[in-house]
Amino acid sequence: MPRPVTLFTGQWADLSLDELAKQTVAMGYDGLELACWGDHFDVERALASPDYVHQRWSVLQAQGLCCHAIANHLVGQAVCDLIDERHRAILPPEIWGDGEPEGVRQRAAARMIDTAKAARAFFDARPGAAAIDFPATVTGFTGSSIWHAVYAFPPTSQAYLQQGFDDFARRWRPILDAFDAVDVNFALEVHPTEIAFDIASAQRALEAVDHHPRFGFNFDPSHFAYQGVDYIRFLRTFGERIFNVHMKDVWWGRGDGSVGVFGGHTDFGDARRHWDFRSVGRGDVRFQDIIVALNDIGYRGPLSVEWEDARMDRVHGATEAAAYVRRLDFPPSAVAFDAAFEGRGRGGMG
């Protein structure tokens, strides 16, 4: 069976779920990865009313759509971050509160625990749930108290950095235990500004939470490629921890030479930039190699398009992205290579 091709709704929060569901079918997708902002999925309403989760499924079912993951990146970001005025723009008012940083972090942590419970309620209400063998998953961010120290000046010791991983572990272990209690996985999107942003930091994050069974990764190659991180190696290193996959493209080595990897404080779409996100299939990511690696590690979950391209109409881009991903995917072989020659007195043709 081919993997379902879904659309991450985070960049479409200006549309109601009803509007987006209809558009999603027209663009050629099998389902949605529902973001916990806009009106797509409300954590507190999901906990307060069984009718709400059934209504969400009704909207999806009316269009023949599936869902395999809930996404709560924005609130998750605030759990470990050094909170400043920028967070107010991405957080629900009740999480921001008076803006006092530690209060924001604690309310964000409590909301992430609620997200696990809401995801469980939502997936338990899924029509035909017994016939679907994908685990319940929440994708998101963790934030980081040490991202500002990514460049080691003033001189930064490993002891200083370890304090950041210890802070991550202290804040996220209770959240992960809550996920475990309701049988839901948390998939960190490994990403600049998070506690894990490449292979080395992902390994260190896993160690910090003692390889907690509910802590894994939402694989998104676009955030590795322009850094120079081997994203195929990431898949093969963390195969059992790949809980969700974002299909998102990027190009790099462009621009006019005036802006480097750190972005030069320019906006996306600025022609001077060294790198920029592109519509899936129009950048430099080796998606064919990704599909091979996903088959090798046994990943059978959704391929969720996170569509971002500052230069392109999003409906046009997301439509061609769905077709591209569907054309690209293929099931693994069910027979051993050269098995057809066994017992015929001749060797393989390799």
Explained architecture:
The chain is of the alpha/beta class and 350 residues long. The chain is 40% helix and 12% strand. It is built from 13 helices and ten strands. It has helices at 17-27, 43-48, 50-62, 73-80, 85-88, 93-96, 101-124, 158-181, 199-208, 222-225, 231-237, 287-297, 314-328, and strands at 5-8, 31-35, 69-71, 137-140, 185-189, 215-219, 242-247, 249-252, 275-278, 303-305. It has an eight-stranded parallel β-barrel with strand order 1-2-3-4-5-6-7-10, surrounded by five helices. The protein has a two-stranded antiparallel ribbon with strand order 8-9. Helix 7 packs parallel to helix 8 (158-181). The two termini are 27 Å apart. This is Sugar phosphate isomerase/epimerase. InterPro entries: IolE/XylAMocC-like, Xyl_isomerase-like_sf, Xyl_isomerase-like_TIM-brl. Pfam families: AP_endonuc_2. It comes from Pseudoxanthomonas sacheonensis. GO terms for molecular function: isomerase activity.
Q: What is the CA-based Rg, rounded?
A: 21 Å
**What is the count of DSSP helices, taking H or I runs of 4+ residues?**
13
The percent of residues in helical segments reads 40-55%
What is the CA-CA span between the terminal residues?
27 Å
Order of SSEs, N→C? EHEHHEHHHHEHEHEHHEEEHEH
Counting helices, strands and paired strands, the structural category is alpha/beta
Query: What's the shape?
Result: globular
Low-confidence stretches: none
The amount of beta strand, in percent, is 5-15%
Q: Largest sheet, described in full?
A: 8 strands, parallel, barrel
Physical arrangement of strands within the biggest beta sheet: 1-2-3-4-5-6-7-10
Protein name: Sugar phosphate isomerase/epimerase
Domain Xylose isomerase-like TIM barrel: 24-327
GO molecular function, one term: isomerase activity
Keywords: Isomerase
